[in-house]
Design goal:
The chain is mostly helical and about 100 residues long. The protein has 2 helices and no strands.
Length: about 100
């Protein structure tokens, strides 16, 4: 009988330890989920910043080429030709409407 009481006491202690670990793990999980959400937002913001900087870099390259730089002249010419074609298309569509 005494042996059974001792076994039950040991089991109770182990169960209490496991419940405490479970609680601790749950709290850690909540903390990590919150951190994950914050990091997702930061990642999204950084992607937006990267996109803006990339576009700005393209514009600066084109401007630099227009000012006489030899780098990327073909790219600049291609972009200008593309813009000219778009303008011509718009003019043609407007003239068709009249």
């Amino acid at each position: 009988m005494e042996r059974n009481k001792l076994s039950i006491t040991v089991l109770e202690k182990k169960i209490i330890e496991l419940l405490n670990k479970l609680k601790s793990n749950h709290l850690n999980l909540l903390t990590f989920q919150e951190q994950n959400e914050v990091l997702k937002i930061q990642n999204s913001d950084l992607k937006k910043q990267l996109s803006l900087i990339t576009e700005e870099n393209k514009s600066l390259k084109i401007t630099n080429n227009l000012l006489g730089s030899n780098e990327g002249r073909q790219e600049t010419k291609s972009k200008i030709n593309s813009l000219i074609k778009e303008v011509e298309n718009c003019i043609q569509q407007v003239s068709e409407i009249k």
